[in-house]
Design goal:
heterodimer; A: 493 residues; 2 domains; two-stranded antiparallel ribbon; 2% strand; B: two-stranded antiparallel ribbon; 4 strands; 69% helix
């Protein structure tokens, strides 16, 4: 990599580690960090992000996205196209609340659910109401925004953390209400209980029903482009600047006569409105809503989308949504295991390529992993054939290679959990050591991760993806809290 | 459903006993939130899952010692060993979480450790799902220590210890209550009398100043996490003994209620956490007894919202003063 070649080598900091350096101005002290910021893949992405104007980015995204239905089949378009757009919209809405205004809203997914349920009530057989979309959309969006406003009212008094927990309660209460309370209105349960509401009408454009996947996809894409444009202007506006001031320091913002409370409520209402809008299209595309679609795991996924791309960046949300949804769909239980396996090994190799700087060290690690696998497999087979007799989950070309390389014991119940815990310990240890020791430990860690994948994860891809998303949040927060494209925030004391 | 026509003293007393038992469990969880919040101003979302891991560690100890149906050792040392295993496992887990998920974020914007905590919580929940499966694991406290467990003869734990006018108090409730009181007294003494306690108070008052006075704040914070998580682990075993079932999702709701208890009592205050725990436990027991089970959770959340709106600093908390 030639990036950052003109920056001179910085001597190692004397107090390596993370103890607070009392008396050192943080802005000056973090000069190396800021230089590092510009190096590597993420730095490259940031520089590209800085150079390309926003209208060009929007046009490029729109053009590529619009061509998707031309070469994708219907199922893929549903899983990869429509769902990515839904996540883009959800991420954009959450980005207003978390990214612009800096309010940690953990009840966001309930607002999305409210929008979807409300749309379902207004256009389905449930009550026999079939309002056209040009009526339901404004009604649902405005009422969801109003609900967000009401939810935001306690935020005027609460510290950031209290707000988080109150909104988390709200999200929980929504699921309980929809599932268990299900009050009877006009002769039947309002929310349909655990069964949800089925037979929801498709969205329509002034009477023209959007029933095929292509039409739905293009419709949602149009909405996404509109929202992106709107948010771009909003974030550059007076209000957007005021939100960022509020995020950086509420007290200072208030002292500068920024109406803090009104802005907080506005952010809440705005994010909620986008969530409601997404809910309308989500319900119509799925044709049914159940409470399981609006529970904690989806919230974590939306947070992963926003944080991966970079809090506060529109381009970041789009990239985050693409990455998260594609890996999400690859790890879906109904997806062929071969795809998930290829994705896993590709991501591991990619991480190694990004993470290990001199190429010969990278080569040494890759060769070491391959050699270790062959040796370990041969030794294990020689000791006891049952150690390598476990069945490989079939799928594609890689399974043959895997069965000769990874140790998959038959009849050792404790092996898989032990390997999993061993992998966690190895990864944690990796973060603590440096230099050649680290390279040395990396080899068994990579091999161990292959074992864990083949013995535990491949059989339960749905659990595996939640584990990986949880780990991703922690990893991103500790390594790169600003995400791929976010602006690093400086706390000046 | 609905309020009973005549006031029933026996039902009331029974609910009071159950509520106090439940409350002591929540108080232990709340203490963990309170200690950590007091020192780091961090809301440790993963605390409920540490409690869940504690419950599983207790179950693992029980299984290693022969399982509930045929334990290798007598009942009293068995229960003590279960508590020890859970407390040590949870305590260490808490230290590891602090070291790897929170310490790198010590000087980051406040939202970063919260999101990291969310990730840890989700990670632990699903790791437990992967390792232990989705089915409930049972402590079988009903037959624990019984002479004929195969014939489901009740053991001493759930046998009514005293029966006063149809109100029955089980041995397990007495164990839970006395363990909680013991742990709380120990914690209070630790914070008030020892050098570590003094360092903890200093760090919570002003971390930077404490560091300048030569206190190793990182170590103090790690100890705080160890102590708080240890209490959660004990609570996990208590839950397993009281309700017999442990499962991977149990930490979420218990964590929310423990947090409610901490906030109601005044977050950062140790007596507040105890009081809050009792209040939440009693509220849940009485709402469950008089209004029906599905209202008990909503009542607890309602109390939280009410307290936050009326007295955000909690019953025993001191209002935070913002310094510029």
């Amino acid at each position: 990599m030639a990036t950052g070649g003109d920056i001179p080598e910085v001597p190692a900091r004397p107090d390596e580690g993370d103890r607070p350096r009392v008396g050192v101005d943080e802005w000056v002290a973090s000069v190396e960090d800021r230089r590092e910021e510009r190096a590597g893949i993420a730095g490259l992405a940031r520089r590209v992000d800085d150079v390309v104007p926003s209208w060009a980015r929007l046009a490029a995204f729109g053009a590529v996205a619009a061509s998707l239905p031309l070469w994708m089949d219907r199922g893929d378009l549903f899983a990869y196209g429509i769902f990515t757009l839904i996540y883009v919209l959800l991420g954009l809405g959450l980005n207003v609340v978390v990214g612009y205004a800096g309010l940690l809203d953990l009840g966001y997914v309930a607002l999305f659910g409210f929008g979807a349920y409300f749309y379902a009530l207004l256009s389905s057989e449930h009550y026999g109401i079939h309002w056209p979309s040009w009526v339901t959309f404004p009604v649902v969006v405005l009422s969801t925004a109003l609900l967000g406003l009401v939810l935001g009212v306690p935020s005027r008094r609460l510290l950031g953390d209290y707000l988080a927990i109150v909104t988390l309660f709200f999200g929980q209460a929504f699921v309980v209400f929809v599932n268990a309370a299900n009050p009877t209105v006009r002769g039947q349960g309002l929310t349909g209980g655990p069964n949800g509401i089925a037979d929801i009408d498709a969205n329509d454009l002034f009477g023209y029903e959007l029933t095929t996947r292509r039409q739905q996809y293009w419709f949602i894409l149009g909405v996404v482009l509109l929202v992106l444009t709107g948010l771009h202007f909003l974030s550059e506006s007076r209000t957007g600047r005021a939100w960022r001031a509020l995020r950086e320091d509420p007290l200072a913002a208030e002292a500068m006569s920024i109406p803090v409370n009104r802005l907080k409520l506005m952010a809440f209402a705005f994010g909620a409105g986008i969530a409601g809008l997404t809910g309308c299209m989500f319900a119509a595309v799925l044709t049914a809503v159940t409470s399981g679609n609006f529970a904690l795991p989806i919230l974590i996924t939306i947070y992963a989308v926003v944080i991966l791309g970079g809090i506060g960046s529109l381009t970041g949300v789009v990239i985050g949504a693409i990455v998260i949804n594609v890996s999400f769909q690859f790890l879906a239980p109904e997806n062929p295991q071969d795809n998930a396996r290829i994705l896993f090994y590709a991501v591991v190799v990619l991480l190694l390529v990004i993470g290990i700087r001199p190429w010969w060290r990278l080569g040494a690690v890759l060769a070491g992993v391959l050699a270790l696998g062959v040796v370990a497999h041969t030794v294990a087979e020689a000791v006891s054939p049952s150690w390598t007799a476990g069945a490989v989950v079939e799928g594609g070309r890689l399974s043959g290679v895997v069965s000769d390389w990874v140790i998959i014991p038959a009849g050792h119940d404790r092996f898989a959990p032990a390997a999993y815990i061993g992998l966690i310990v190895a990864i944690l240890a990796l973060t603590r050591i440096r230099g050649w020791w680290r390279t040395g430990l990396l080899i068994p860690t990579v091999y161990l991760s292959a074992i864990v994948w083949e013995t535990s994860f491949v059989e339960q891809p749905a659990v595996a993806r939640w584990i990986l998303f949880g780990a991703l949040l922690v990893f991103l927060m500790t390594v790169r809290p600003q995400g791929l494209l976010g602006t690093p925030r400086v706390e000046i004391v | 459903m609905g309020l009973p026509l005549a006031f029933n003293v026996e039902l009331f007393t029974q609910l009071l006993v159950n509520g106090i038992t439940l409350g002591s469990l929540y108080a232990l969880i709340a203490l963990g939130y309170s200690l950590v919040y007091g020192i780091l101003k961090l809301l440790n979302f993963a605390h409920g899952d540490v409690y869940m891991i504690g419950a599983f560690a207790g179950y693992a100890a029980l299984s290693l010692l022969g399982g509930p149906l045929s334990p290798n050792i007598a009942l009293a040392p068995l229960i003590i060993l279960m508590f020890l295993a859970a407390m040590i496992a949870s305590g260490l887990l808490g230290v590891v979480i602090e070291r790897f998920a929170y310490r790198p974020l010590r000087d980051a914007p406040r939202i970063a450790p919260l999101i990291s905590a969310l990730g840890v919580s989700f990670f632990l929940q699903n790791s437990a799902l992967l390792l232990f499966g989705a089915q409930f694991r049972s402590y079988d406290s009903f037959v624990l220590g019984s002479k004929n467990p195969e014939f489901f003869e009740p053991g001493p734990l759930t046998d009514p210890l005293f029966v006063v006018k149809n109100v029955n108090i089980q041995l397990i409730q007495v164990i839970v209550l006395s363990t909680t009181v013991g742990l709380m007294v120990a914690l209070t003494l630790l914070v008030a009398k020892t050098q570590l306690g003094k360092a903890m108070r200093a760090t919570s008052y002003d971390r930077e100043a404490a560091a300048m006075m030569g206190i190793d704040t990182d170590r103090v914070i790690a100890s705080t996490f160890f102590i708080g998580s240890l209490l959660a682990g004990a609570a996990g075993v208590m839950f397993g003994l009281l309700f017999s079932q442990v499962f991977h999702f149990m930490g979420f709701l218990a964590g929310l209620k423990g947090f409610t208890a901490a906030v109601v009592g005044g977050i950062g205050s140790i007596p507040g956490a105890m009081l809050g725990g009792l209040l939440v436990g009693l509220a849940e027991a009485f709402a469950g007894g008089y209004l029906g089970g599905r209202w008990s959770d909503l009542t607890v959340f309602g109390i939280l919202i009410l307290v936050l709106l009326v007295r955000p600093s909690g019953l025993l908390g001191t209002p935070a003063i913002k310094k510029v």
